[in-house]
Amino acid sequence: MKALILAAGEGRRLKESAAKGKIYFPKPLTPLLGLSLLERTILNLRENGIEEIFIVTGYQGEKIKRFIKDGSRYGVKVSYIDNDQWTKGNGSSVLAAERTLKKESSFLLIMADHVMQPGAVKKLLESDEQVKPGEVYVLVDYKCQKVFRIEEATKVLVDSDGRILDIGKDIKDYNAVDCGVFLCTSGIFQALSDEALEGRHALSDGIRRLAKNGMVKGVDIGEEWWIDVDDKWDLEEARKRLLESLRSPRDGLISKLINRRLSIPISGLVASTRVTPNMISFLNFLVACLSAAAFIKGLWPVGGLLAQSAAVIDGVDGEIARLKYMATKYGAYFDSILDRYGDALIIFGMTLGWYLAHSEVFIWLLGSAALIGSPMSMLGKEKFHALTGNPYYPEKYDGFLRYVPANRDGRLFLIMLGSIFGQLPLVLGILAVITNVLAFGRLVMVRKVLCR
Predict the structure, then answer these.
(1) What's the whole-model pTM score?
(2) How many helices (H) and strands (E) does the chain have?
(3) What class does CATH assign to 2-241?
(4) Which among 17, 304, 306, 341 would be 20 to 30 A from 89, CA to CA?
C-alpha cells in the first residue's frame, strides 16, 4: 500500500506560540525528542510495512525536500507532490495527489503533524480488505474525555454500525474524534472536487459529503494514543506521552518502581543527540566492568552503586531504540549478550573481592550458584518468545513468582543493597536461591502454556 502525507501547511499557531515566535523551519520539521514530526510519521508508516510514500509540500517545501530527500535513510521511497494552492486548505493538498493516486484501489492518508503510536495506524490498515470502492475509513477515538484539548479537535458522529454521519470541528452532536488518519479510495477525490466547486477546501468537507451518502466508516483506535500538534502546548503533551509510552509490560518490580523513573528522563535528554542504542548498551557493559573492578578492589559500596547504575542505563538503550525507531534484531542481540557478560563479571567480582578480603572458600560455592541462576531469567524469556512468538510477561505467566526480585533489575538492586551494608555472602546466597527458584518455577508455569 502507498501512503500520502500532508505536509503543506504553514503551522502559524505553532510559530506564534513558540518562544518569541522564532521558528525558521516548516512545521513538519519541528523537532520532537530527536526526530522531526514528519520523520516520526514516515517511520511510523515504515513500521507498518509501508515503503512508498508521497509527501504533499507547500509552505517552505524545498526545505522539506532537502531534509527528507528520497527517504532511503529511513528505509522507504519518498516522492513529492507540490501544491501551490496550499493556502486554500488541506483538501487542496489531497486533490494535488489525484493524478498520482487515483488508480490505487486504496491508499493511506495521514497528517504530518499528528503523533501517534504505530499500533494506531495498524488498526486502520487491518481494515483494508473491507473498504469498498468509493469509501473512506477514518481512524476515530471514542475516548473523548481523554482527548487533549478536545475543543480544537475535529469531532465525528458515528452510528451503531460504525458509519460516520457528520464530521467537523464545530458540530454539537458527536461521540468520537477524528485522529487524522484515513484509508481512502478514489472516491475522496471526486468528493473534494465537488466541494471545491462550491468554495470549500477542507478535507473534512469532502469527508462530510461522502458521509451523507453512507460512504464513510469509523475505525476505533482503541487504547492507542494520538495527538494533533498545533502549538507548543500540544508539542509538550506529545513529548510527555512519548516518554510515558516507554514503560514496558515486561518490566520487573524494581524497574517499575525505581529504574524507569530515572531512565526515562535520561532518555528524554539523550534523544536529541546522536547517541545510538548500541553505544548505550556498550556503556552499560563498561559500567558493569567498573562495578566488578570496584568489588575486586574492596570498594563494595562503589561496586554496588555502579551495578545499580548499570541497571538504569540498561533501560535507556531500549527506550532510545523505541523512541527513535532504531530498534534492530542485532541491537537486541548485542544488548542481551553484553548484559549476560556484565552480570557474570559483577558476580565474579563480588566473589573474588570477598575471597581476597576474607579467604573464605565457601564464597566460591555461593558465587557459582548465583552465576548459574542469574542468566536463566532472560534465557527462559527468550526461549519462550522463540517457541511461541509472544513476549514473556512476568505478570501474566509468573504467578506469585513475579514478586521475586530475580530478574536483572531486582538482582542488581539486591547487589547494591548488599554491598552498601557489606553483606556480599548474604546477597550472593539470596541470588543463588531466588534465581534458581524462579527458573524451576517457570518450568512449571510455562508447561501450562506450551502443553495446551
Answers:
(1) 0.89
(2) 19, 13
(3) alpha beta
(4) 17
